[in-house]
Write a structure and sequence with these properties.
The chain is 34% helix and 18% strand. With 222 residues, the chain is α/β, with parallel strands linked by helices. The protein has one domain: Aldolase class I (TIM Barrel, Alpha-Beta Barrel). α2 packs parallel to α3. The two termini are 17 Å apart.
């Protein structure tokens, strides 16, 4: 099965929160397909970011593009429901944050969202085996979560290739998302390895022209 169309998902973690609605509208006009939320609880990861109220505020502001929520929280089920109620489109979480991964995935689906799992750089892909066929998406972290602006871990590229082969063998339309240090100079390699969904924060929001930043990323797709 061929790889799905590529998607750029700017992470609002790097946006200017004083004018967040304006920032999100601008990256959408600049060519972003999704908007990515990095939700951290200062417990599972050493940082505290945003909650469902921000998601609802953006939906109420008129944002209609898919909202892709990455939960780095423990426990996870309550936040799944809150973000689903707030307007999330897809919700991914780390298997180690749930007491019952299958139940948490089913909760996401029951609430009308698309379910996914997140694998940290030091976590084996084997963790996915019981669940992969039923997922909408797998998010591979290419940094250790907690802070934006980190450098891509090169060893993750091999992991992307391995997961791409597994997904293709299943003949399922499972998105393969990558998050962490995605830049113009490495997105081509990441794309060639098999990723189709790319979270980019500083590579977009730290640039003066969002349209140029996004088009420069897209021009390097394999």
């Amino acid at each position: 099965m061929s790889k799905q169309s590529n998607i750029i998902a700017p992470s609002i973690l790097s946006a200017n929160f004083a004018i967040l609605g304006k920032e999100v509208k601008e990256v959408i006009l600049a060519g972003a397909e999704w908007i990515h939320f990095d939700v951290m609880d200062n417990h599972f990861v050493p940082n505290l970011t945003i909650g469902p109220m921000v998601c609802k505020a953006l939906v109420d502001f008129g944002i209609t593009k898919p909202i892709d929520v990455h939960l780095m929280v423990q426990p996870v089920d309550d936040l799944i429901k809150m973000f689903a109620d707030a307007g999330a489109t897809s919700i991914t979480f780390h298997p180690e944050t749930s007491n019952d991964v299958e139940k948490s995935l089913q909760l996401i689906t029951d609430l009308g969202c698309k379910p996914g799992l997140v694998i940290n750089p030091d976590v084996s892909l084997d963790v996915l085996d019981p669940y992969l066929a039923d997922l909408y998406m797998v998010l591979l972290m290419s940094v250790f979560p907690g802070f934006g602006g980190q450098v891509y871990i090169p060893e993750v590229t091999k992991k992307i290739s391995e997961l791409r082969k597994t997904i293709d063998n299943l003949e399922k339309n499972i998105r393969l998302e990558i998050d962490g240090g995605v830049k113009e100079d490495n997105i081509g390699e990441i794309s060639a390895a098999g990723a189709d969904t790319f979270v980019a924060g500083s590579a977009i929001f730290n640039k003066s022209n969002y349209s140029d930043a996004i088009q420069n990323l897209k021009s390097n797709f394999s």
